[in-house]
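Final report, closing paragraph on structural work. Over the funding period we assembled a curated collection of sequence-structure pairs, and we close with a single example.
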Amino acid sequence: MEKVSQSKKYGNICNDTIIRICEDEFKKFKLYKDIEKSVKSKLHKIQGAYIGNKEYNEIALYVDELTGKGFLEETELKKICQRILELHRSTAERLYFYDRFYQEIFKVTGFPESVMDIACGFNPFSVQWMQAGKKIRYYAYDINFNQIALLNSFFKAIEYPADAFVQDVICKKPEECADIAFIFKFIPIIEFQRKKYSLELIRSLKAKHVVLSFPKKGISGRRNILPDEDIEYMYGLILNELNVIKKIEFSNEMLYVINNH
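Its predicted structure, as stored:
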């Protein structure tokens, strides 16, 4: 575990995640080199494939720019946020329809006073597209220390009522309450790590609505990281176990709005 946690690529991932994956892979392999290789492969698929240190450094410069500017007009702030969102593969795919993305969600749920964003990536940088003149209390969770530090610096710079937490939701479920929980493109990654855990996590969330999204293709253009039987489980979960009140389709992403309580 120490070798992985001290590596340049994975040193910023929270210890809970590294320990959990090491324990899982220890059960499968006898040789340390095989365990280390498998752990790094898993970490790459759940985190490293999306953004690298170069992108983090660029984002840090944009956040520093915001910190030094003081008050910004909405259009100028959006331009800086757009540059940040372009650097993360998952949010870059959404840039062309972010306005409509939140409009369609809030048509179903009503405009929220609070949101939790599970495995948030850089989606919180899109708050300017969702607020419609009103700030939403925002809770964000992810496993990368650098990412969470950038988000908290960003929220502070724009004086936004938000907190970002370094938290592995497979190890520790969120305790905060919110009107809506976003789980964007994360269910396949949960199931890749811990099969059939998604339902337990969704039902544990203290949120009136949960919005799940699924990529129509993986980030490399492939379908996704799961075998067909797990894909069938995921969609069976949506259709049979959850109270889906609306299905929303975009060009590269499918959303399901769930009445959770």
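The longest helix spans residues 32-48. Residues 219-223 have pLDDT under 50 and may be disordered. We thank the funder for supporting this effort.
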